[in-house]
Amino acid sequence: MITHKADPLYYFCLMQKLALPIILLWRMWFYVTIFIAIVVLFPFIFITSLRSENYKAFFPYARYWAKIILFLSGFWVKSTWKFKPEKSKTYIVCANHTSMIDIMMTLALFKNSFLFIGKSSLAKFPLFGYFYKRTNILVDRTGLRSRAEAMDRAAEKLRAGIGVCIYPEGGIPDENVTLARFKQGAFRLSVAEGVPIIPVSYPDNKRHFPYSPLKGGYPGRLRAIIHNEIVPEAQTPKEEERLKELCYQMILQPLQNQTPLSYESELIAE
User: Fold this and answer.
1) In Å, what is the CA distance from 105 to each residue of 20, 161, 224, 265, 269?
2) Structural domain contains residue 86
3) How many domains is the chain built from?
4) CB neighbours (10 Å) of residue 64?
5) Cα 39 to chain center, whole Å?
6) Phi, psi dihedral angles at 138 (to 5 degrees)
7) Which element (helix H / strand E) includes 198?
8) pTM of this prediction?
């Protein structure tokens, strides 16, 4: 009979527990890098964020901010582009949401200017919150009025030539959920304004930097799959449902391909 101490899983769990303090320190360092990047870029992001009309001047510095954080945290991005956005066009970016690094990843990937529709609670973070609330659309997801106002503001930004990033799951789902069912907002906005959607899949972010600190994480390669654009063809509720289902399936497919074996192979490769 094999005892628990001879089981490879036992040693794996033991190593995880021994490594936890190091992992927690590394995760703390990640949040430190957020402030380091702000301090480095402070004169530029402060001046360009003073007026909302200057957002397109602010956006390149937001991308630098994201890239600094990813670099200092030990992440590098491997992107697969099935579609290249046109420089002159405006898009709605929709991605699965599993981690804090989703924000940095999305900024690092896209050159077309866009802002986030994000939860208002992030505005409470010192320094980061100041720039977050000045340059993005904040929403209280528990309030119907707040959600409606956020969509109205997003529509105004799209008409002004600034894209929008929406994580259509409406928040970070439970750890055991691969992809939560999508909310309607992004697709209603796309249909109403005639703006294409770019679906994006992040297969690695959950395991590299899970939402819960106790779940661990580690530096390494972060893959992004940028799918073909989805163009609205009519202004009807049926079209909203078509866009929502198509976007869901496109994002889900690379996430379902993740198996324990492929995880192990990538760990060895990294």
Assistant:
1) 25, 22, 8, 23, 21
2) yes
3) 1
4) 17
5) 22
6) -95, 145
7) strand 197-201
8) 0.86
